[in-house]
Amino acid sequence: MVSGKKIAAAVSVTALVAGLSYMAYFDYKRRNDRQFRRKLRRDRKKVEKTATKISSPSIDEISDLAMELLGKVASEPMPQSPEDKEQFFMAQVSKGEALSSSGASAYPEAACCFFQALKVYPNPVELVMIYQKTTPDAVFKLVMAMMAQEVKQKQARYFDVFPPRDSNVRIKDKSKMEGKTKYKHSEDGVKSDVVVPNRALFATKGVEQGEVVYEEESVVSALLPCAQNGKFCYHCLRAVAEEKAETESTEDVEEKVEETESTESTEDVEKKVEETEPVEETKKSSATFECEKCHDAVYCSEKCRQDAYDAYHQFLCPSSNKTAREFAELTQKSHELAPILIAKFFGTLVDREKKKEIARALGVSDKGDTDEYTTWEHLEIMRYLELIPTANDATALHKLGEVMSASVPGLNEFVTGERYTMLKGKLDYNAFTVHTEGVVPKETPETHVSDTMRDDHTKSAVGISMYLISSHIAHDCDPNVQIVFPDGTDKAAVKALKSIAADEELRISYVDPQQSVEERQKQLQALYRIKCACKKCEADLEAAKAEAAAAPAAEDKAETVEEKSAEAVKTIDPNDEGTPSFAAVAASPTPVSAVEDKAEVVEEPEASPLKTIDPSDEGTPSFAAVAASPSPVEAKAEEAEKPEAETDEEEYETEESSDNE
Hints:
Layout: H1 4-32, H2 34-55, H3 59-74, H4 82-100, H5 107-120, H6 124-134, H7 137-156, H8 158-161, E1 169-173, H9 174-178, E2 183-185, E3 191-195, E4 199-203, E5 212-216, E6 220-223, E7 242-244, H10 250-261, H11 266-275, E8 283-285, E9 289-290, E10 298-299, H12 302-316, H13 322-334, H14 338-362, H15 375-381, H16 391-404, H17 411-414, H18 417-430, E11 432-436, E12 460-466, E13 474-475, E14 481-484, E15 492-496, E16 507-508, H19 517-528, H20 535-570, H21 582-587, H22 591-603, H23 623-628, H24 632-640, H25 644-660
Parallel strand pairs: 13-16
Antiparallel strand pairs: 1-4, 2-3, 5-15, 6-12, 7-8, 9-10, 11-12, 14-15
Helix pairs in contact: 3-5, 3-7, 4-5, 5-6, 5-7, 10-11, 12-14, 13-16, 14-18, 22-24
């Protein structure tokens, strides 16, 4: 029997002979075959060209290459179990590192390996930050380009799978439906090739008035400062129920005393009566679920407390560390909820992705095709306001990084100032006011917040929240749906205010629709940069124009009536020369006014007796002389008792002199 060593030796010799033979054949073809030499030159140029593209590529070249590589890895199967994912990750990273060190020609294949490893890593943001520090710049750019192209492909099919079919709604681009294309313009007004979609939410079936179209959980929410009084849940915003504590009235005490009288002595009974006093009714909160550290965050259930802790409260609790306390104080002084909401969002984002991975590993994921999209990818689809960064934003971002860096690795590098401002713009445009049936204290200057919220002012505001589906509902001053909160939590329900047909657009009011058209349009322009042209605004503006046009005609008519009345009063008797004119009579003093004028003259020296009198002054009248002189009241009475004829005569002389003049 032939041994294994002999077989191995024979195989080695055969391989060596085959290798030498191929080398001899290759050298012969290279020397004598012109086509073979051309093929070699083409292959070499292709490799050099690829290396040049990778080492100093343009944006278009990187995008094209990324699309090509993405199509190459798309067909490769991905592992499913956690153990298989871990092995696959290690193998891809090791292979990518080896290829990166081989030179620029191997960069595309290395980028594919790193991209595949990224697909199975539980925290992609963290791994991207590691790639940025450890891989060649060309490889990192290629990996990021592949990620961007994948996002574009996912976005292209996003509206085919989201919103879920059972929500009875669908997102459509109105620009495509109407055949109108809107392009984005730069700050200088230059038109770009970027198309701005005009998306809206449409019903997929008919809905009757009063019916609920769909319900939706919030992405992130927060209590308003005025509602942070221990009476509302810090997680779901539910009003914490209050119950009356058990009390005993005086009658109940006396009944108990009578029952015990037969068994106890009189002295013991009297002593118990003295010690037992009527207890006043007091309200005791049933919310015994609170943060064990700060005791400020109150929850309606143990589930809410645990969910809040897992997602965000573990690093936002003011009592957990000094940095968290400083972050809470900063947001309170700035009168903004945006920093808190952004911190909650990233904490919730990481927590949800972890739970998704666990669900996939256990095979219990039931969200269908929408499960492939992360919360961040949902958020990127939403509209937002372009805001100008402020100094407070920079401070809040710095503190946010300090607070969450331990819980969310790589957050500081990922959330740049630009991304932070973009997130604020998305919150300002898409956030809703959460209403409650409970009693919320009125907002004060201390509890006021500057955040923008869609609010139709139907009920008391308790919090602010954002939703993935409802964010796509457009505004109308005469809405056909309304956001309500039937469970008393931040879970929203879209209720039909009118009968809605299939394929009809859903519209809500971003502001109070009961306001005047001027106030509505002023708020919409200031808060959302919307120039509303709905039917209600057009009708109200037409009515306002008609009213404004009718006002001058009414004023002209009133002025004409007044002029005619004045002319009729003035024309007394033109032939009577002795008749004084209306102006002269009006200008002349009446008897009463003449008496009042004299009284005023008399009243002037009234203050003289109160002055400091100097006895040595010869010009100063004596006390007796002053006492003998008539008082101002008596002088006024004497003037009033003069004959009426004299007064009439004086008036006539005054009128006549006026006429002569």
